[in-house]
Each structure stands twice: as C-alpha cells, then as structure tokens.
Amino acid sequence: MALALDGHVADPAPHLVTAVLLHDAPEYAPNNIDLDALLTARFGSSVAATVRALEHAFHTTVAPHLPPSMAGDLPRFVVRAE
C-alpha cells in the first residue's frame, strides 16, 4: 500500500505514510487495547484518524464483495491481496 501511495502522491506527508504503513492495525490489534489512544499517543491524532478512515474505506468498498467463505478471514485476505 505504501508503494501505491508513492505512485499517486508526489510528496506524501509523514503522517500519511505512517498511517498507510499502519493501515492493518485495526485488524491485528489485541482487543484489550485502546487502539485509537495508542496510535494518537505514539503517532498523533492525524495518523489515528487516517488509519480509521482507511479501515472504514476497506469495510465499505472491499469487504462487501468478498466471497462468503472469506467473510471471517479478513486479515489473511488483506495480506494475500497486497
């Protein structure tokens, strides 16, 4: 995903590159942490907001088109697709 960003944005802001690198964090973060608080504390609120926006975009544009057999396997599907 970071390479795709580089191909579309000439000089991406550091927070955008960081968010793109962390775009799968919501899928892999343990349930017992506050991911938004963690991302905000470590990387800033713009990174946390962008990570959540990327998550929302995935779940509204890609996930509805997955075969039912992959519905419960989103993290592995995302890794294979990239």
TrEMBL record:
Record's protein name: Uncharacterized protein
Organism placement in taxonomy: Bacteria, Bacillati, Actinomycetota, Actinomycetes, Micromonosporales
Species of the source: Planosporangium mesophilum
